[in-house]
Hints:
Elements: E1 8-13, E2 19-25, E3 40-44, E4 49-60, E5 68-76, H1 80-121, H2 129-140, H3 155-163, E6 167-172, E7 178-182, H4 184-198
Parallel strand pairs: 1-5
Antiparallel strand pairs: 1-2, 3-4, 4-5, 6-7
Amino acid sequence: MADRNFSVRLFEIxxxxxxxxxxxxxxxxxxxxxxxxxxxxxxxxxxxYTFYSVQRRIFVDCHGGASGWLIIxxxxxxxxxxxxxxxxxxxDTQFWNEIDQQESIEEGERRKQEREDRDEYAPRHNLHPRxxxxxxxxxxxxxxxxxxxxxxxxxxxxNVLATAALIQPVGKNHSGQKTWRVTxxxxxEIERRDKLSxxxx
Length: 201
């Protein structure tokens, strides 16, 4: 232990006053607080806990750079109170571990649902914004069903939408122009895009 720069070292004092090192750690081992006189330290063993009472707390200032706290402790006889304290701590720790585990499961399920929703609402057709605008216009204005009646929609745009089965021809008007209507898939594509843009994932 003397070769390591532990900032907190616990020594057990026996009946003859001899000191035996039992623990060497950094201050954060005790949650950032160095054990003080009157504190009780419970140390886990192979089968049960051993309890120690803090007798003295001494800061040893060494020029060699190994300065730190020397804590003198005396072994205590285990009492029902001390044993109950350990049991209560372990039960409380288990309770919060279960809470953390449940929250982790719920978070995983939430993320999975978000991925599924994102996949469900993801556009299935790689459309140019101009083609999306044309498709949306046709949905909102079903009477505008010829190429010249759809703003910014030329033959190329109409052909892309038709090839993707988002619109389909329904005949010709009195002027002999081909008329179109939006298919079920065309409506579904716009609906997916709207849900995706309005959802928070």
